[in-house]
Design a protein that fits this description.
Order of helices and strands: HHHEEHHEEHEHHHHHHEEEEEEEH
Number of strands: 12
Number of helices: 13
Helix content: 40-55%
Shape: globular
Length: about 375
């Protein structure tokens, strides 16, 4: 190592390209020794940047970070940049709180199924993550992008420091929670769903079409019907089976939408977030699965409600709570690929999920919450 440093320092100078490249190599070597070595071969983006002139930029590579709602933010990085560094850059540039308080993190697209988002370990190097993804993706598959997709979104729903939420975070949280509500994993009241849908429609679409209940226009009704389908969860729309109830839903949606005419988006996203607090599942992550009853072993379709302190098993049909566990009471948990078992003292709870990605996500979520609870308990200990 000392010979390598001496060689680079000998040729490092600012007059020639090779000298500036040697200076860049010294900088990267020092960062690598300070923050840890790489674990994988160089990724394609890294090779392209190195073959160019990486010494011209402090961060020679850049990649888009997708945000909830379809926006994206381009951030720079180098060969030694960790995920934690990338997250800090995104937070500082967008004006967001630290992920320690907001619960946001960086996700990557699964190399086999791009629709699945996988959380990334903060200690990993971004170039290692990209190189591993490129090694796992199937070549010449037109359905899978050949460039990794990164998404910055909420992972943990934390209650601490709620008063410090910025307007940007209100917007991102509202857009992500709207997607969760539209998935209809767990039901909500029709009145609440209509109000939330109208607020989001005003924020995204702007002022809605003029609607007169006494003299409805067919084109206007068709437009509103399309917006209802876009902004009202399908499980809510399915409750309106007869034409009269569908017309009433469109009417209520249009009336609420008109109340927010010409209102700023800043107020709308804050209104959406505050209105969503009426939904008791807004600070939780929801999973569908099968629950093995401890007494008779029968499997029942359930919805898992995971918060930072508790896991609740709810019957998907009757909405009756079948079981509830405080996370600090869980002694161990694990399972793969489709099931997870929780051990609480001498009691086991077995849950089967719809796919292995959901099982992995639930395991990561429980581990993160349990780790956070352990840190808080340890720091508050006398």
């Amino acid at each position: 190592m000392s010979y390598l440093k001496a060689h680079l320092e000998r040729y490092s100078e600012q007059k020639t390209s090779s000298g500036r490249f040697a200076g860049y190599c010294i900088k990267v070597l020092k960062r690598c020794l300070a923050f840890g070595k790489r674990l994988h071969h160089p990724c394609r983006l890294e090779i392209e940047a190195t073959c160019g002139k990486p010494y011209l930029h402090s961060k020679p590579m850049s990649i888009p970070i997708h945000l909830p709602g379809g926006d994206y933010h381009v951030t720079g990085f180098d060969t030694v940049s960790s995920i934690a560094e990338v997250i800090r850059d995104v937070e500082s540039q967008l004006g967001l709180r630290s992920c320690r308080w907001s619960g946001y993190t960086l996700f990557m697209d699964d190399p086999i199924n791009p629709a699945v988002k996988v959380p990334i370990n903060h200690s990993s190097k971004l170039c290692d993550v990209i190189a591993k993804w490129e090694g796992n993706v199937k070549p010449n598959n037109n359905q899978i992008p050949q460039v990794i997709g990164l998404t910055y979104q909420k992972f943990l729903h934390l209650t601490a420091q709620h008063d410090c939420v910025s307007q940007v975070e209100y917007k991102l949280s509202a857009l992500q929670l709207h997607v969760q509500a539209m998935e209809g994993v767990h039901g909500m009241e029709m009145e609440l769903a209509t109000c939330l849908g109208a607020v989001m429609a005003q924020a995204v679409e702007g002022n809605g079409p003029d609607f007169l209940p006494t003299k409805p226009n067919n084109d206007t009704v068709k437009q509103l019907s399309d917006f209802v389908e876009k902004y009202i969860p399908p499980n809510i729309r399915d409750r309106c089976k007869d034409p009269n109830s569908k017309q009433q839903l469109i009417k209520d949606f249009a009336e609420i939408w008109s109340k927010f005419k010409d209102v700023s988006n800043q107020f709308l996203f804050q209104k959406y977030y505050s209105t969503l607090e009426r939904w008791k599942y807004h600070k939780s992550t929801l999973f569908r699965g099968l629950y093995s009853h401890p007494k008779d072993g029968l499997k029942v379709a359930v919805c898992l409600n995971v918060t930072e302190t508790r896991l609740t098993v709810i019957n998907a049909d009757t909405l009756v709570i079948m079981d509830a566990v405080d996370l600090d009471k869980i002694t161990s948990f694990g399972g793969y690929p489709f099931s997870i078992t929780l051990r609480i003292n001498n009691k086991n709870i077995s849950i089967m999920l719809v796919d292995k990605h959901k099982c992995y996500l639930l395991t990561e979520l429980l581990a993160s919450y349990c780790r956070l609870t352990h840190v808080v308990t340890r720091n508050n200990a006398p």
